Amino acid sequence: MKDILPKEMEIRNYVMNMIRETYGKFGFSSIETPCVEHIENLSSKQGGENEKLIFKILKRGEKLKLDTAKEEGDLVDSGLRYDLTVPLSRYYSNNANELPAPFKALQMGNVWRADRPQRGRFRQFMQCDIDILGEPTYLAEIELVLATTTLLGKLDFHNFTIRINDRKILKAMAQYSGFPEESFDTVFIILDKMDKIGLEGVAAELEKEGFSKESIDTYLGLFREVTGDIQGVRYLKDKLKDVLAPEVAEDLETIITSVDAVKTADFRIAFDPTLVRGMSYYTGPIFEIAMDEFGGSVGGGGRYDEMIGKFTGQNTSACGFSIGFERIVMLLLERGYEVPGTAEKKAFLIEKNMPADKLLTILKQAEEERSRGVQVNLSIMKKNKKFQKEQLAAEGYMEFVEFFRDRV
Question: Within its chain, how far is the Cα of 343 from the centroid?
């Protein structure tokens, strides 16, 4: 967890305002959920590895009985949210009757994970999610990708890649290769390491798990043949026709071609059959933002049509996209990003012990400047005026007005 200095806060506020403005134009409405959720919601086996990283909260008052507790459930009843998707599902199940259908939600808020901090990753961090609930068609995926990439374009990001796949294609490839269905998750965990260990590394790990050489060879043969474009989708549609419904590949092709045809930002969308996404709740198309300057993902999402049903007993179509807010801000800071169109800034330096009547004149002048849209910072003149001005200049104050008792 970290403190945030003014320069970063200026960029964070700018990015948050840009998010609200851009996503608002796509019809998304801002909502808010509490940072604390019931522990049973957070531990529903929907959050994958994140469920191991929950900051858990002890029961309070009379509910907490330390002397008679036999297991964790006797001590804990809630926790800090580790993402915004689980809270959104609970929120929708509680409020669906008062919300439009489909419902397009925008959430920004802090989440917490007891993770190992590293570059671009903290234990408390801001997430920014857009979700479309109640839209079963690929229009949801198209809208989410276009809204997110439009935002990144406005923040001056170029040449990034949207990697896209479908969980149904992942499963069909594993089924076609002869892996038993109960082992699919194990296969996908290993496949997810492809970019780090390569095809041969994946083969070695699958073999170590005891899978047959025939299944492994068939599986990796698919990856050697498939290409990262529309032709790759069509290849798998034909190759997997006995285990994959044709509309799965057709819908994925439509998403890719539609986004490519109307995009406004500078990026490419590429089919990636190795894309897994760790969350077990994904049921259809999945996507990630790959950015070379970061060296990894700076956002991702997908379709999760079965999660809300865990709360309501009735499945609701759902699809979402989350940007890595902290990573985006970090990249902007590293490249020395300047917030565009900021107000003119003036620093008024006032001689020490300025008489009250003359100080009032200065205050009125500052107010007149502010009414014209100028940002005015008033401070008492220090002995080391040169250093004082350097500090103010670092904050963007390039014009200085000095006030002395005999010149007001």
Answer: 29
